[in-house]
Automatic annotation (TrEMBL):
Pfam families: YajC
Residues that span the membrane, as ranges: 6-22
Stored InterPro entries: Preprotein_translocase_YajC
Entry annotated with the keyword Protein transport: yes
Cellular compartments annotated: Cell membrane
Membrane topology designation: Single-pass membrane protein
Record family assignment: Belongs to the YajC family.
The entry's keywords: Cell membrane, Membrane, Protein transport, Translocation, Transmembrane, Transmembrane helix, Transport
Organism of origin: Mycolicibacter senuensis
Protein's name in the database: Preprotein translocase subunit YajC
Coiled coil region boundaries: none
Gene Ontology terms: cellular component: plasma membrane
Amino acid sequence: MNSMVAFLPLLIVMGAFMFFASRRQKRAMQATIDLHESLRVGDRVHTTSGLAATITGITDDDVDLEIAPGVVTTWMKLAIRDKIEPEDFAAEAAVEQATEDA
């Protein structure tokens, strides 16, 4: 009986850790689902491999990404990491232009 009381704080700490880890994972998964549901044709996105592209078509599981003018590739939706917001796109375009000018 006394040895079980000694393990009680350890069990409580482990239970709390598992509870909070589970909540964090659920939030991250919901954020990914929300991102994939919000994708629209014309959105600029980053893939998990770091590619920046524009969405030209969407199906249930796949997206068509234009990676260069006239070059369209098909990717799984799960490969989309995030959207590039318009202000991020302007900064990215300025860096590309400066690189081209050099």
